[in-house]
Amino acid sequence: MRSAVFVEPQKIQIEHRHIPVPASDEALIRTEYIAICGSDQARFWDTSRVAQEPVVFGHEFSGRIVSAPSGNGLQPGEPVTVAPLFNCGECEYCLAGIENLCPKRRQFGVLVDGALQEYVCVPADRIYRLPKNISLEVGALIEPLAVAYHTVRQAGVPEGEPTLVLGAGAIGLLIAQVWRALGYGLAAVVDINARRLAVAEQLRIPVWIKDPNESKFQLIFEATGSSQAFSKWLPALTPRGKVVVVSKLEGDVTINWLDLLRKEGEIITSRYFTLADFENSINLVEEATIQLEPLIGHIVPFMKFSDNYGVDVMSLAKDAVRLVVRI
User: Fold this and answer.
1) Which domains, from first to last, does the chain contain?
2) pLDDT(51) > 60
3) Which of 38, 118, 253, 290 could form a disulfide with 1 if both were Cys (CB 3.0 to 4.6 A apart)?
């Protein structure tokens, strides 16, 4: 089989490997579509050295079952997606239903080879069938939707006050959609990227154009990854307001703690998703309350990674909310 292997910053090369043999609790999946996320791009461009090299990227993906353990109901040819956090299932966090915080979790596509290859083996209990009305292309984006769903859950019960999402990337646009889909009203987005804002308008998500000094929000979601943007918009928080941070903020963050103290403001964080979040995310797409297809800016063939060591693909990914690779 062919694998796109990240060997060093700005270099992905196509390698030929043996088709993996699944363990007794694993299924073999023929990958179909893989989305390139912001963390993949950061590692490729050497702005984040989380991944060890060599490694195969890809944790947002869909595919079809080739083989599966007997008795679990998965049938060859079925379209599926995968919840790509492989936790231990035995620690106090897993038993409490917060497996996203499992200290032994294996991050698919980071320290464990991911889906940017023709076949992968994954634990069968992390595989979810795609309903008939969810295409394989869209199925590759269930994982970031689950991240957004978990982030909205972290915000708690809304009080009906204005809500702002910093960043109109994939996670930000999905947070705004989940917020609306759960009946919490409208969440506006702010961004400086015109292409992303065009997608927001296509999804009927309000675009906020006022500056922080003219803005007041009870709830702010931070999904830019920019410490400057976070510091810039924090003063727009109302008394007893809340900020939920889902992005990996780069660099030092300047916070006026006295101002936050006087407001009794709250800053909380959101990390990954739980399996319950993943299941609920699939349901939202099946019910057509969430639109994922408008987020796909480009679909490119797998072998395009052989052009210029993947630089061409990753450059194109910068220009899209989500670039999807077709095997």
Assistant:
1) 2-141+292-326 (3.90.180.10), 147-269 (3.40.50.720)
2) no
3) 118
